[in-house]
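The instructor's notes for this session suggest beginning with a concrete chain rather than abstract definitions. Hand out the sequence below and ask the class to guess, before any prediction is shown, which regions might be ordered.
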Amino acid sequence: ALPLRSTPGAPSVAIIARLPNDVDLELAKCDMSVLAMLSLGRTIWDTVANGSINSVPGITQRDLVEISGAFNDAASSALGWVVAAVLLSGTGVLKRPLERSSAKTAQVVVLVFCLAGPISLTLKSISLALIEPNLAATLSVLACDVHDLPFTLVLLLGWRVILAPAVMFDP
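After discussion, reveal the predicted structure:
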């Protein structure tokens, strides 16, 4: 456990949690929100499209498992993106101004996404391995996530190239 107060020789929590100076936390939170909403929306879409909605009101144990899985997907996507963006903060992916050229923004987003995808899948596979003893089911879920990566990239590009510059203003 980390000490509540810094003692000589012990690292403080503030030093451990320090981000690079050029990281815009508001932009990072917006990116995480977009990815989380995409993941939750995809889960709702899959539930409706597969016809797995119960006609009987109430929440079953299976419903709770699906809800927790949806939030797991959302958290894995968002955390994977932020970890990759902070690791590659030298690219300026989490830095304003957002008015740079669309081509440059797209290049940076694709570069960071190439690292974020595997990080997100790793986070999700670890959490699935902890709760799902069936390896075939785990691999099936991960295969669906790999299949959805291009759509996630397109949505993220749309957000960062078109929408973010329009709605995110310099403070």
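Then share the key points. Helices lie at 13-16, 25-50, 61-87, 102-131, 135-167. DSSP finds five helices and no strands in the chain.
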